Amino acid sequence: MAATLLSEDERKSRLPELESTGWRAAEGQDAIRKIWKFRNFPEAFAFMARAALAAEKADHHPDWSNRYNIVDVTLTTHSARGLTALDLALATKLDKFAPGAEVIRDHGADIRCLCEIRAEKP
Ligand SMILES: C[C@H](O)[C@H](O)[C@H]1CNC2=NC(N)=NC(=O)C2=N1
C-alpha cells in the first residue's frame, strides 16, 4: 500500500518527540532534517552504513550528504511528496544508530546544499 501523508493529528502527536532529539523542518519542503557531527569519518561512515542497510530493508531512503564527520540527513517520502509514517520510522532508527553524536543546529558556510549551487552566468 502506498504511504499516505501524515495527518495534522499525527503530526501533532509524533513530531514533538523528533523535535526533542534535534530534527527540524527542512526548508522549502514537507520534510525533516537533522545534522550530526561525529568524532571522525569512520564513525560517520559506520552510522551511514547502518542507516543504508535499514533504509534498503524498508525500501525507504534518506536524502543525505556527508563531509568528513558531518552527516546531513533529510527525510521525506518522494512518492507522497511529503512526510509519512515511513519517515518517522526511519528517523527513529537513525536516532538509535547515533546515540552519542553531536547534533548541529547551525551549519556553517562550508556545508551547503547542492540545491544552492548555481552555474555562473556566462
Ligand atoms: C521503487 C522504490 O520502491 C521507490 O522508488 C522507493 C525507494 N525509496 C524511497 N525513499 C523515499 N524517501 N521516498 C520514496 O518515495 C521512495 N520510493
UniProtKB/TrEMBL annotation:
* UniProt-annotated stretches for the region Disordered: 1-20
Question: What does the record give under GO molecular function?
Answer: 4-alpha-hydroxytetrahydrobiopterin dehydratase activity
What is the catalytic activity of this protein? (4aS,6R)-4a-hydroxy-L-erythro-5,6,7,8-tetrahydrobiopterin = (6R)-L-erythro-6,7-dihydrobiopterin + H2O
**Sorted alphabetically, which SUPFAM superfamilies does this protein's record hold?**
PCD-like (SSF55248)
Protein family membership: Belongs to the pterin-4-alpha-carbinolamine dehydratase family.
Query: InterPro entries given for it?
Result: PCD_sf (IPR036428), Pterin_deHydtase (IPR001533)
Matching Pfam families, A to Z?
Answer: Pterin_4a
Task: State the NCBIfam families in the record.
Answer: PRK00823.1-3 (NF002018)
> Where are the compositionally biased (Basic and acidic residues) regions?
8-17
UniProt name for this protein: Putative pterin-4-alpha-carbinolamine dehydratase
